[in-house]
Write a structure and sequence with these properties.
The protein is an alpha+beta fold. The protein has helices at 12-19, 68-76; strands at 2-3, 27-34, 39-47, 50-56, 83-89, 94-101. The chain has one domain (2-111). It is built from two helices and six strands. Strands 1-6-5-2-3-4 form a six-stranded antiparallel β-sheet. The protein is globular and about 40 Å long.
């Protein structure tokens, strides 16, 4: 897992301060987004070595993780770009804030254009 800043996912409080997110915007949790599927992971089911996943464009239907470490494990399991995002509810809109990604993502130093 590679992060925008630091060696781990930033805490919710850190994101609020750095991005000036109002205290009345609830933190919904951590989610997985992939440009490969053009959407958010909505569901995942593992049967042995087989993993079935469904995706959708709406962050309000995203599969939520309370713990970023659990979400990181899912992100790292993808064979194509996937990103860990923090979701905040602004009422009429849900903000999806990318904080890190797998080795195939833009967060990987080796994948960034020079």
């Amino acid at each position: 897992m590679h992060y925008a800043v630091g060696d781990s996912a930033p805490a919710e409080e850190h994101l609020r301060v750095e991005l000036e997110i109002p205290p009345n915007a609830p933190f919904l949790g951590w989610a997985v987004h992939t440009p490969h599927e053009d959407g958010f992971l909505e569901a995942q089911e593992r049967r042995g070595d087989f993993v079935s996943r469904s995706f959708g464009p709406d962050p309000d239907r995203a599969m939520l993780f309370a713990d970023p470490v659990e979400a990181e494990t899912v992100v790292d399991d993808f064979d194509y770009p996937a990103v860990l995002v923090a979701l905040f509810d602004f009422g009429k809109q849900i903000a999806s804030i990318p904080v890190g990604g797998n080795v195939h993502s833009q967060f990987n130093e080796n994948e960034k254009p020079h």
